[in-house]
Amino acid sequence: MAGHRAPLPINSLATAKVVVVGEAPGAAGRADLPLYPLPPGCAGHRLFKMTALPNMRTYLTLLFRANLLSYNPGPNWPKREAHIAAMAMLPFLRERQVVLLGRKVARAFGVGQYSFMEWNNYRDLCDVAVLPHPSGRNLWYQDGGNLYLAGQFWTALLD
Question: Which of 25, 63, 70, 98 is the most buried (most CB within 10 A)?
């Protein structure tokens, strides 16, 4: 995060409208700043842009952002560890709207067959939707129609 001001210290379940769960910090990311919107080009920045929220403070206030893993596992995704982390999050998800970013995260929660951007009740605990991970390598978002649909999903959710 060199060259950027100190991060806005907002990531509170008390102020959040939505819980967003990602995989892990990016290669240059920080475990204590999951899906943070800086630097430009990172997954958090792409997510911030998709939400069309007016500024970063609003993004950081309305979305509680968490990663399943506190470190970047590289190409070897630890399924069991991710599942244990997902189950440990469950008490914090009660009666919330939860967006799972990517199929790896969805599988860690035991969600395998949900369609993207479709709300489903999860274990009578919370409402869950799955979106593709906002990684720059994700081809799904390279289709302008999909990017538009994702933007519409976030607009409807955060209005």
Answer: 63
Tens digits of per-residue pLDDT, 55-88?
999 999 899 999 999 999 999 999 999 999 999 9
Element (H, E) at 65: strand 63-67
For residue 80, give its domain range: 18-158
Enter the tokens of residue 149.
């649909």
Q: Computed over its alpha carbons, how large is the radius of gyration of the chain?
A: 15
Q: What is the pTM of this model?
A: 0.92
Q: What is the CATH number of the domain that holds 114?
A: 3.40.470.10
Q: Is residue 59 part of a domain?
A: yes
List, in sequence order, every residue forming a beta bridge with 111; answer none if it has no partner.
none
Report the interhelical angle of 144-158 vs 43-51 (nearest 10°): 70
Sign for the CA dihedral angle at 121, 123, 128, 129 comes to negative
Render pLDDT for 108-132 as a digit per residue (tens, 0 to 9): 999 988 899 999 999 999 999 999 9
Burial class (CB in 10 A: 0-12, 13-18, 19+), 143: exposed
- How many C-beta atoms lie closer than 10 Å to residue 51's C-beta? 21
Count up the domains in the chain and report the number.
Answer: 1
